[in-house]
Amino acid sequence: MVKVYGVHGSPFVRKVFVALDFKGIPYEIVAQMPFSRDAEYLKINPLGKVPTLVDGDLTLGDSKVICQYLEDAHPEPALYPQNVAEKAMARWYEDLCGGRVAELAAGIFFQRFMRPLAFKQDPDEELVGRIIDKDLPPLLDYLETQVPADGFVFGDFMMTDLSIVSPFVNASYAGYEVDASRWPAVAGLIARVKAQACVQAVLAKEAEALGLG
Ligand SMILES: N[C@@H](CCC(=O)N[C@@H](CS)C(=O)NCC(=O)O)C(=O)O
């Protein structure tokens, strides 16, 4: 059976769980904390990051590489578009939102959620304020021009939609919600993605794992 190394709550591991559920592929979770620098884990993923997917002889890191592999190995139901230009855009959105957007959202999540919980320390509100007021808005302005007012980026729900939304799920655990009066399309997409059955199922398990009421 496919194995996923990771933990509930990671915006990247979430993408892999949703992709596997969406495609109806059974999997086993091997609990692996990020930042553990676990020597055994570093043998299969030298970056030490989660997720890692093991499928038979194949061992892969990086959520976008993993999700694209799952799409190639199990094309139906599709999680990526077929059209060449749309496929390229899907990779761009996944890279942008798994990169800079995720980094900023993780800053909010780490400071306001993980730091008090795991380290019993107060958040650095100056840093959080800078992310919310200065760093995130230009990215949200851009996404607002890319995201439809209704439905999903390529019509049906796909990995692009989850890739855009996943970092904001983590920020929402830390009390940050995208301002729907300023970025209505992005806020609407977040709500629609969260309402997808395959996303809801993973978020429910995640809420339990994170002790969210
Ligand atoms: N580009 C990677 C990023 C994965 C990532 O940064 N995962 C975080 C957890 S949310 C992690 O494992 N961080 C540990 C580290 O950076 O050492 C992906 O898409 O899978």
Protein architecture, described:
The protein has 213 residues and is of the alpha+beta class. 60% of the residues lie in helices and 8% in strands. The protein has two domains: 2-73, Glutaredoxin (3-Layer(aba) Sandwich), CATH 3.40.30; 84-208, Glutathione S-transferase Yfyf (Class Pi), Chain A, domain 2 (Up-down Bundle), CATH 1.20.1050.10. The protein has helices spanning 11-23, 39-44, 63-73, 84-119, 125-146, 159-173, 184-194, 197-210, and strands spanning 2-6, 27-31, 52-55, 58-61. The protein has a four-stranded mixed β-sheet, covered by helices on one side. α1 packs across α8 (197-210) and α6 crosses α7. The model has no long low-confidence stretch (mean pLDDT 97). Bound molecules: glutathione. Residues 10-12, 34-35, 48-51, 62-64, 98 line the site of glutathione (GSH).
Note poorly predicted spans: none
Overall pLDDT metric: 97
Largest sheet: 4 strands, mixed
Helix content: 55-70%
Put simply, the count of helices is 8
Integer-rounded radius of gyration: 17 Å
Beta-strand fraction estimate: 5-15%
What is this structure's SSE topology?
Elements: E1 2-6, H1 11-23, E2 27-31, H2 39-44, E3 52-55, E4 58-61, H3 63-73, H4 84-119, H5 125-146, H6 159-173, H7 184-194, H8 197-210
